[in-house]
Design brief:
There is one protein chain. By secondary structure, the protein is an alpha/beta fold. It is built from six helices and six strands.
Length: 177
């Protein structure tokens, strides 16, 4: 349900490769390792008035590698780890489909963003997407989020990435100065 208040700036984050190290189809707590400084970065964003959202493709569910319940268990644990450190993630949006299902939620499609826009009063102009793949950048740009940060090698080229940084910590200076 959309909140009846003025729009708020938001930061959309991909999960694997941005919040945690991407080891491929991470779905067990024991395999989940937060990236260095993620708590400091997200706290800085939150302290500067940003709402925090996670938008993540989870094709491992659609491919049968793990279940939706496995994903939800890991997500609940992850959110509690953030809460312990005073960080509030507004919502986690995920696509459980395999690529061949051609859904409207799997990035680079905009479905997860559109759902967030329908549920929260988001100021697209002052919001950001932080991801590690071209699909993250394209989905955000197509959804109207023009402030995009690609985490990765500075030699990567992406027409939808407004900025490219080496790691998540570099986004603090970029986004809040």
């Amino acid at each position: 349900m959309k909140k009846e208040s003025e729009s708020k700036k938001a930061i959309f984050l991909d999960r694997d490769g941005v919040i945690n190290y991407d080891k491929g189809y991470v779905h067990k707590i024991e395999d989940f390792k937060f990236v260095d400084k993620i708590f400091e970065v997200l706290r800085a964003f939150q302290d500067n008035g940003y709402l925090l959202f996670i938008v993540t493709n989870q094709s491992g569910i659609g491919r049968g590698y793990y279940t939706k319940e496995d994903f939800e268990k890991l997500t609940d644990w992850m959110l509690k780890e953030f809460e312990k450190r005073g960080i509030r993630i507004e919502k986690v949006y995920f696509c459980p489909h395999a690529p061949e299902e051609k859904c409207d939620c799997r990035k680079p499609a905009t479905g997860m963003f559109e759902k967030a826009f329908s549920e929260y009063p988001i100021d697209k102009e002052n919001s950001w997407m932080i991801g590690d793949k071209h699909t993250d950048m394209k989905a955000a740009a197509d959804a109207g989020i023009k402030n995009t940060v690609l985490i990765g090698n500075c030699f990567i080229r992406d027409e939808n990435a407004k900025y490219i940084v080496n790691d998540i910590f570099d986004t603090i200076r970029l986004i809040i100065g």
